[in-house]
Specification:
heterodimer, A: 362 residues, mainly alpha, 2 strands, 3% strand, globular, B: alpha/beta, Rossmann fold, 2 domains, 12 helices
Chain lengths: 362, 360
Amino acid sequence: MMFRLEKRPSPSRFWAAVTPVLAVLATMIAGGVMFWLLGKDPFETIRIIFWDPLFHETFGPYSRPQLLVKAGPLILIAIGLSLGFRAGIWNIGAEGQYIMGAIIGAGLGLAVYPTESRLIFPLMVVAGGFGGWAWAMIPALLRVRFGTNEILVSLMLVYVAEAFLASVSQGLLRNPDGMGFPGSRNFKDYPAAHNGEILAGTGMHWGVAAALVAVIFAHVLLSRHMLGFQVRLSGGAPRAARFAGVRPARLVLFCLGTSGALAGMAGLFEVSGPAGQISIDFNSGYGFTAIIVAFLGRLNPLGILLAGLLMALTYIGGELASLMLGIPAAAIQLFQGMLLFFLLAMDIFTNFRIRLKKPEAA
Amino acid sequence: MKRRTILKGAGALALGSALGGRALAAEPTKVGFIYVGPIGDGGWTYEHDKGRLAVEAHFGDAVETMYQESVPEGADAERAIAQMALAGADLIFTTSFGYMDATIAAAQKFPNVKFEHATGYKTAPNVSVYSARFYEGRAVQGIIAGHMTKSNVIGYIASFPIPEVIRGINSAFIHARKVNPDVQFKVIWVYTWFDPAKEADAAKALIEQGADVVLQHTDSTAPQAAAQEAGNVITFGQASDMAEYAPLPRVSSIIDNWAPYYIERTQAVMDGTWQSVNTWDGIGKGMVKIGEISSAVPADVKAEAEAMITAIASGEYHPFTGPLKKQDGTPWLGEGEVADDGTLAGLNFYVEGLEGEVPS
């Protein structure tokens, strides 16, 4: 008896929905074995990672809001990325757009310090979105004009953005009262520009709200709108899309622009809220993690919402596990890596049927 | 021991709540540590963790320690600190500059927990700051480096352009120039405390540019390995002794010795005498140690370096003693004048003779 893979005519919807769950279970098992090999109780570890951030009586009340704080930017960025990914447009540089959005938006806020006006924060959000959009336009225009590869250009621009961030946090945006230390003023001390909690104690800040709105918009766009149809068609059948009148250049500009703008806004929400200040390394790698979230959520808006929350859970649960049990940080990262690995590996069930093949007579 | 007997007494409940609402007053004092790198980095975090282990060894069952490694210096830091406070820590050491605002924010949420932030400058009623005068060790390195270099090019892997790092570059340069007027410094900024790949790249780039001495202000041993591979290049252990690379390329080291401070502060929490302080100790108090000067260093150079250690330890010599000019040629310190701590704490300029500029 042998197994044989048979390509499905179209990906199985059933398996597309089930594989994330299977991937999580497989991660728990493989991760449990790893924790056991490290000399930790695997059941306790898995419980701390997946259960305690939500329901532990001491940690729960603190970490539940933190889940939203952590998931918000991931979801917002991943939604933007998923549009492009569906159309076969690969923006790998969301981290750079996130940083540039934060710099432009925060720069605007810091420039008008200490003016108090209700308009400041909304304008910062717009500026943040613009910063991310503009940064994403570089790979977009280069691709449209010169046919460059947007994967490489957008990725390389992340390092440019990081260098730019290092420069402004020690120069242009440095806190004048900071005794020469790098880092901007803290937005917590500047109410007009602070992205505080909408409801105290919930972790719900404007960035989380924006992420939820983005989920709804993306869902409507993809299921009801012509543009969404074009996005799906371009990814699924590029030739057919061309015959159907899709203009690829416009689509590239739209997808990269939208994902850049959303990443830029996420950066602004983060820097003016949870991070509090522009500093050399305020960016926590959300732009890269969001790529995982987008795929974990099957490039589907509602899936991304759940995937973002799950990713946030593994982060916060992982932190708790390393705190409570002394599990090395690297093991937690491995655990998260397993999740992506199993998810991608299980795609085989979505795209292929597994048939038993009788060995042919020798 | 003493604390336990007191707590068994009738006043246990009252005292328990006074000490920060610990559920069971007889529980050991909990001390937490937030680390920027992995405990196995062989440098900065490794030494802080040795301090943690020393606290455990010193107090035995009277303390319980916990730590979290590789905590990023962004929005995640505050959560890590808060979770540690929720886990019952009575005293938390946050051991990197980038945790400053997060420490202050967490301290406001947990007024009964004591916090100690390394290398920062913001204090609060329940937040102390502490740091070591690493620049004293850099003076010793400068002397050895200035004597040992044949190419007269000394490479310096710098992390972030914060005063602590700039002090180190200046101090090493001043003392290298003192013994070798032809010496040049090449500085590479890597913008990380711990990234073995980046550190190794920087070391290789410096060596290719002719540096035969590489100083580092980053935490991994990758530059040591790069120097060993290149041959004929000497290095200094940073934060930790890095003795596994002795006698060559590592010819000496700066060792951060946090254990006495951590023990003292833990004791203060146990005794209820903890107060917010600003500590900045150096070779004299033993917070900075100079690792053994290896056999690769000629005896006369070694003697000169050791004389410098003694002079700094006794307070007879200060590494920033005039006459010194700023890079642009304007006077900074007059003949015999010593830099005050305030200026040093915020130092953001190079001294005369250094090339390049402090990034800004």
